[in-house]
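for the writeup, i need someone to sanity check this before i put it in the appendix. the sequnce is what the collaborator sent (i think, or maybe the updated version? ugh). structure was predicted straight from it, no edits. if anything looks off just tell me and ill rerun, i have time this weekend
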Amino acid sequence: MRHQFIVRFLISSLLFTLVTSVVCAQSPLVFDGLIEKLRKSKADTGRVTVLLELGRHYVLKPGELSRDLDSAVLLASQAQTLSRSLKYRRGEGNSY
């Protein structure tokens, strides 16, 4: 019984490590893609979504700095302002 627990724990730990490393490795690619989407987006609900995704990226990226958190707040504020002008309640709510 204890042996099964140890094996499950080790397998779970290994999977978690692999998934985390893959996500972190893809992070710059995701960031660049979001920046490109933001450049091409119009002032619509899609832009609100991209602004919020970029903000989440800044908050969740490994080793974030205070300027990253400042960027996340700025992006959320922009998403909130745009959502209000579009009367997009979901975007406004997600920007808090």
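Helices lie at 2-40, 45-60, 66-86, 89-94. Residues 42 and 63 are 31 Å apart (CA to CA).
thx in advance!!
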